[in-house]
Specification:
Elements lengths: L1 E3 L31 H10 L7 E3 H12 L7 E6 L6 H9 L3 E4 L2 H9 L7 E4 L7 H7 L2 E4 L2 H10 L6 E7 L28 E2 H5 L2 H9 L2 E6 L8 H15 L7 E6 L14 H19 L4 E5 L2 H4 L1
Parallel strand pairs: 1-2, 3-4, 3-11, 4-5, 5-6, 6-7, 7-8, 7-9, 9-10, 10-11
Helix pairs in contact: 6-8, 9-10
Length: 308
């Protein structure tokens, strides 16, 4: 991989392929950041092998935007590394003070192999890895995404006051081809059609609190994620709803609102304005502090917004 520091995505690469197997396509005539000279220098660095080239200037600009996300009482930005787990990019974001959101035990191990401290990694996974106990003891933060995960976690750390995060499906979502906040859409990961997180009614009806109490756990973080939408009104609605889950445990110090910030790739698509969606979120945190006397930290988890 090569990281290019020029501010100008990829030049066409020549392959030694039999003419009968060549796919006929119009060669690219321009790039988002590569000049012919810079493209050649990247190829030279890779000794002629296939490579991906990334713009350091673009990565820096995205990091700046995320680190400036409006917040009331402190912000942690976590890179959703599934977007691009390249080691050099992980190291760069770490150097900028950006932590890691991992979606599997394998991603956790990869991040640690790249020098990311375990305590800077948060794991939210559809399936707990077999070695989750070891990861927790190393310092990795885990968000339990189902009742069965919370049970397994509790059994492993019964009566130790082990800190844990709880991922909640708030019942609404945003993003993708559907304008509905509760219907199916590929990038809408909140609502009744989504399998991500514990359904909110299991949190408010006492089911989740009873499991936490049974095993003597300490909930320190609430995690929600609505999808790749950019409607400020939906973000504000979700923030307020998510903050209501924080009321249940006075041990909660952090609310993670996930990521999914839309990147406009086509002429008719608009990239999410982080300041626009973040401002009402910050206000919701201030209102919560006034009402409950707790100043919660905010976490966000951008993926392609950072690494694309």
């Amino acid at each position: 991989m090569a990281i290019a520091s020029s501010a100008s995505a990829f030049a066409p690469t020549k392959f030694s392929t039999p003419s009968s197997a060549i796919l006929r396509a119009t060669p690219a005539t321009s790039s988002n950041f590569l000049t012919p000279e810079l493209a050649q220098s990247c190829i030279d660095v890779a000794s002629g092998t296939p490579l991906y080239a990334y713009s350091l200037d673009a990565l820096a600009k995205s990091a700046d935007a995320c680190l400036a996300f409006p917040n009331a009482y402190g912000l942690t930005v976590r890179y959703a590394m599934k977007a691009c787990p390249n080691g050099t990019i992980l190291k760069y974001f770490l150097s900028r003070g950006i932590c890691i959101d991992a979606s599997s035990g394998y991603e956790v191990r990869r991040a640690m192999d790249m020098g990311v401290p375990a305590e800077k990694i948060s794991l939210s996974s559809q399936e707990l890895p077999q070695d989750f106990e070891e990861l927790v003891k190393l310092g990795v933060k885990i968000n339990c995404c189902s009742i069965s995960q919370l049970e397994r976690f509790g059994q492993a750390f019964a009566n130790t006051s082990q800190k844990v995060g709880v991922r909640v499906n708030p019942g609404v979502g945003s993003g993708g081809f559907s304008s509905s906040t509760t219907g199916f859409s590929k990038t809408n990961v909140g609502g009744p059609s989504s399998s991500f997180g514990i359904w909110h009614e299991f949190v408010t009806d006492g089911t989740v609190p009873s499991i936490v109490e049974k095993y003597g756990l300490e909930v320190e973080r609430i995690h929600t994620h609505i999808g790749s939408g950019s409607d400020p009104a939906i973000w504000q609605q979700t923030a307020k709803l998510s903050l209501s889950f924080c009321e249940i445990w006075d041990t909660v110090t952090t609310l993670n609102l996930g990521g999914g910030y839309k990147v406009g790739r086509n002429p008719d698509e608009k990239t999410t304005d982080l300041i626009e969606i973040g401002a009402p979120v910050a206000d919701a945190f201030k209102d919560f502090a006034k009402e409950h006397g707790r100043e919660l930290q905010l976490e966000i988890e951008p993926g392609t917004y950072l690494g694309e």
